[in-house]
From TrEMBL:
<keyword id="KW-0472">Membrane</keyword>
<keyword id="KW-0012">Acyltransferase</keyword>
<keyword id="KW-0808">Transferase</keyword>
<dbReference type="Pfam" id="PF03734">
    <property type="entry name" value="YkuD"/>
</dbReference>
<feature type="active site" description="Nucleophile">
    <location>
        <position position="357"/>
    </location>
</feature>
<keyword id="KW-0564">Palmitate</keyword>
<feature type="active site" description="Proton donor/acceptor">
    <location>
        <position position="338"/>
    </location>
</feature>
<dbReference type="GO" id="GO:0071555">
    <property type="term" value="P:cell wall organization"/>
</dbReference>
<dbReference type="InterPro" id="IPR005490">
    <property type="entry name" value="LD_TPept_cat_dom"/>
</dbReference>
<keyword id="KW-0133">Cell shape</keyword>
<dbReference type="GO" id="GO:0008360">
    <property type="term" value="P:regulation of cell shape"/>
</dbReference>
<dbReference type="GO" id="GO:0005576">
    <property type="term" value="C:extracellular region"/>
</dbReference>
<dbReference type="InterPro" id="IPR038063">
    <property type="entry name" value="Transpep_catalytic_dom"/>
</dbReference>
<keyword id="KW-0573">Peptidoglycan synthesis</keyword>
<dbReference type="GO" id="GO:0018104">
    <property type="term" value="P:peptidoglycan-protein cross-linking"/>
</dbReference>
<dbReference type="InterPro" id="IPR041280">
    <property type="entry name" value="Big_10"/>
</dbReference>
<feature type="region of interest" description="Disordered">
    <location>
        <begin position="30"/>
        <end position="56"/>
    </location>
</feature>
Length: 418
């Protein structure tokens, strides 16, 4: 029994000794391994230092975030860099196949688009910058602009930079119905160098016009600012437009068509310029009375009676003339003042024969400047006023064309939401 216990003790001691030897052996071998590990650490640090040396310190920031949706189309896109300068910024809309021009700041640290973006469009932005050591930094982003269903803009008349007649209103047609009319109207600023008071009038939920009490004074400059970006037009529908434009009022020209005498007297700057023989609407289809503003001009255009409700028993247009010369629109419903080559010369000044338009003697091809139609076309501006009197028809309604002058000033002001 003693021998057995003694052998077990020796065995345990031997095992313990082997463990000590093993530990000593591991420790001795670890000296070489530590040396290798130190070399690896030093090499790793050197690699990191080399990588840091090649890394640009320029930090690019892009607004909006990558993959953003519902982005505004005016000032919601911008690129900036810290600790460096911007070398290249490219903004593209692949589905439109176009690159968007942008403006780089003088110190080359910021960039933004020069133009309003398109709605419901995916844009891709690529940026390259460099730090003071010339080391490059790159960043990309893509985003999608707000959808038309959740936004509104206003299409405006007249065009920016245009010269117009004294009757031209500022007319805004919105692509969504506007419920918050006061807020939207307050976002529009219209000023005139003449100092005339200008008031807005809502014809319906999508049209807002501005005009003074009487015609613009000749030579007036009118400046318009549309600050709709962020304005709630209706629940869930926000404005995305931020636009300024201006136009100049030219000389004053007001022409009066007398449907009874079949003459038109053209007055410029208060002085008679010319009297022209005309042919107005027949007794069956008379011309509207009232003050009408020239809103479009066409050297030649097609006129098809079917498009304005003049059809025969077979549903065909009562007339279809492919090349009406020197046509100028006076109403949305189809009233024009235009040249007429298909009627005999004797018609003008003696008989009213049209379907409601005002006709002037002219030739086919619109190539004779001596004809009354050509003369009046050349002497007219968009925004000039044509007044029709002594016609058996009613007065044209103010919303039919740019013809708000057929409303009293009190009624006009009553249509303002502010």
């Amino acid at each position: 029994m003693v021998d057995v216990m003694r052998r077990r003790g020796l065995t345990a001691a031997a095992a313990l000794l082997c463990g000590v030897l093993a530990l000593t052996s591991c420790g001795g071998g670890g000296g070489d391994d530590d040396a290798d590990g130190g070399e690896q650490t030093e090499q790793s640090d050197a690699d990191q230092a080399a990588e840091d040396a090649d890394t640009s310190s320029a930090v690019i920031s892009i607004t909006p975030d990558d993959a953003a949706e519902g982005v505004g189309i005016n000032d919601d896109v911008a690129v900036r860099v810290e600790e460096g300068t911007l070398d290249e910024v490219v903004l593209t809309a692949p589905e439109l196949g176009a690159e968007v021009a942008g403006t780089l700041s003088e110190d080359q640290t910021s960039w933004q688009p020069e133009e309003q973006l398109e709605r419901a469009t995916r844009y891709e932005l690529t940026v390259r910058a460099s730090d003071s050591e010339g080391r490059a930094a790159h960043q990309t982003a893509a985003f999608t602009t707000v959808s038309p269903e959740n936004s509104f803009i206003g299409y405006f008349t007249p065009e920016d930079g245009s010269e117009v007649g004294v009757g031209m209103p500022v007319s805004l047609n919105f692509d969504q119905e506007i419920a918050n009319q006061a807020e939207v109207q307050q976002a529009v600023t219209v000023t005139a160098s003449s100092g005339q008071e200008i008031v807005g009038h809502w014809f319906d939920a999508t049209r807002l016009d501005f005009r003074p009490e009487s015609y613009w004074e000749a030579g007036t400059q009118v400046d318009v600012s549309l600050d709709f970006d962020g304005v709630e037009g209706s629940p869930g529908i926000t404005g995305v437009q931020d636009r300024d434009f201006s136009f100049t009022v030219g000389r004053s020209q007001v022409s009066t068509v007398d449907a009874e005498s079949k003459e038109m007297k053209v007055v410029r700057d208060g002085e008679p310029l010319r009297t022209v023989k005309i042919s107005a609407g027949s007794d069956e289809t008379p011309t509207y009375n009232g003050q009408m503003v020239i809103s479009e001009k066409y050297e030649e255009t097609r006129m098809d009676g079917a498009t304005v409700g003049f059809t025969d028993d077979d549903g065909e247009g009562e007339y279809d003339i492919p090349d009406v010369p020197h046509a100028m629109r006076l109403s949305t419903s189809g009233t024009f003042i235009h040249g007429n080559y298909w009627a005999p010369d004797s018609t003008f000044g003696s008989t009213n024969t049209s379907h409601g338009c005002v006709g002037l003697n002219d030739v086919q091809g619109a190539d004779d400047p001596d004809q009354d139609g050509a003369w009046f076309f050349d002497e007219s501006l968009l925004g000039d006023v044509v007044i029709v009197v002594n016609s058996p028809d009613e007065t044209i309604t103010p919303e039919n064309g740019l013809n708000g002058w057929n409303m009293s000033w009190d009624d006009w002001v009553a249509g303002s939401a502010v």
